[in-house]
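step: validate -> pass
step: tokenize input -> pass
step: predict -> running
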Amino acid sequence: MPVDATAKPGRLRRFLDSDIGWSFCRTPAAWLSTMVLVLLIVTAFLAPLIAPQNPHDLAQVFIDKAEIPPIWQAGGEWPFLLGTDPQGRDVLSAILYGTRVSLLIGIAAVIVSMGLGVSVGLVSGFYGGRIDNLLMRLGDTVLSIPTLLMAILVSAIFRELLPPGLREPFAAVVLVVSISLTNWVQYARTVRASTMVERRKEYVLAARIIKVAPARIMRRHILPNTLTPVMVAATLNLGLAILSEATLSFLGVGMPITQPSLGTLIRIGNQYLFSGSWWLVVFPSLQLGLIVLSVNLLGDWLRDALNPKLP
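step: predict -> pass
step: emit ->
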């Protein structure tokens, strides 16, 4: 059967043939961090299929299996590869389920803060004047408060506004809102700077002359030309969002014990660190560090690959 020479190559081939694909294949830190990150994400979201137990199901937790050490130490038991906690929960299972919670909150926080920041940046840069001054001074006010303190304050306010019975079910939503309200300013400033450049170009001026609605101009014409730095910032901020969630959970204002994230597991394990159960804090900490390191390495490569000033 003859091969059609005019057939379009697949998406993977087009990516590998592009400049960014060439850079990706020749940067070990990029593809290694991508492989590690994909592995962590896949194992986290397949936790119900591959985890030895469901740590949230009390029927699968046995108190007589409490504080079993990792399997390579004396006293270790199969299938508890990384040991168990004082409630008899398998540490590996708890880490896989906790990773899923941390990733979901981090990704959701980045999406919400990016949407808010991009919208504010477009409006501020397109209209300028008093609207620009008002929105940017609001951003300066947010930046004047330490990020962690701001997140704790927002989280505490939302928790007080919710009825006691809804605080645990909506703990993840509160965390997403808290992190998003402290991270949108970077996106807004990035998009504002790009928008102020784009709005003076001929294609935007032509669209305004023919009476195209400002919202359509911002959405269809300006926004696509501002997404490159936004995507780089989003990749780098994913690691910060996951760390922020872990910090809030470690301080006790994040995810509850019934829905533990990596930060919650580290907080629980820290209480038993000096009693000999070191695995309760070491393994969740290693998982968190591996996720953040992989995201940061990938973000650093993406920033350099999309920077036209670099060779």
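step: describe -> Confidence is low (pLDDT under 50) at residues 3-7.
step: cleanup -> pass
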